[in-house]
Please model this.
Amino acid sequence: MLYKSLFIISFLATTVVGHAQTVNEVLQRMGKQYSSAESLQYNSNYTLYKTAESKKIEQSYKGLFCKNSRNEIYMKVDQTEILNSKSINLKINHSEKAILLSDPLQSYFGNFDINPLLDLCTIESFKDFKIYWEIILTPKKYSNLPYSKIVVQISKKYFLQKSVFYYNTAVNFSKDYRSPKSYLPRLEVSNFNFNRKAVNASLFADKTYFDVLSKNKYVPTARLKNYEIIDQRNISNK
Model:
C-alpha cells in the first residue's frame, strides 16, 4: 500500500497548434462516450514499475468503473471505493476503515476528468496506429504535475484504453528507512471490457454505504461495520 497514492489518477489532455483539429475531434468524440446519458462500465489494471524501462512489476491493482444513465460514477481501485452521485461524493478506504463524505462534484467523470487540467499539458505528438490513436503529453513547466511524460492510447471506438505515466518525482521503494532506494517510476493503466449494459443500481444508493439516524448523524451499514464516517459537509458548514 506504500505507493497507493500513485494509482488514483486523472487523464490529462490539451490542444496544440498543427494537430489541434485532429486531436480535438478525437478527444471530443471520446468525451461524448463518457458523458452521454448512457450506462458504461469497464475494468482496469493499474501496474507500477520502478523505472521508465523496467519490465518487472512492483505493484499491481485491479479497478472497476461504472457510470449510470444519470452520469453518476462509481469506481473501485483495490481497497478504495469512490462514488459521485447526485446527492453525495463518497470515498471508502478499506485499509483504514474510513468513509469520507463530501458534497458531490459537478461534471465528474472519474479518471476521465480532463477539464480541470486542460491547461497543464502540451501535446508533443499525435499518431494513428490504425487500431488506436496515440497522444504523447508533456506537463508544462509550472504545472506542478509529478510526470515528465504521459502516453495515451485511444481506441477507434473512442475509449481511453491505456495511459502510461512517467514520473519525474522520485519514490523510495526501500522497506528499510535507513537504506533508501529511490527511483522514477512508471505507472501503466489499462482499461478493457467496455460495455453499455445496465449497471448495478445499488452501487449508487446511499443506503448501500450508510444509514441516516438523524440530521447530520450517520452510521455505516453492516457491510462496513466499525468504519469511521468523516462528514466534511458538516465541517465545511460550521
User: Anything to note?
Assistant: The longest helix spans residues 20-35. The first strand starts at residue 40 and ends at 49. Residues 1-21 have pLDDT under 50 and may be disordered. The helical segments are 20-35, 232-237.
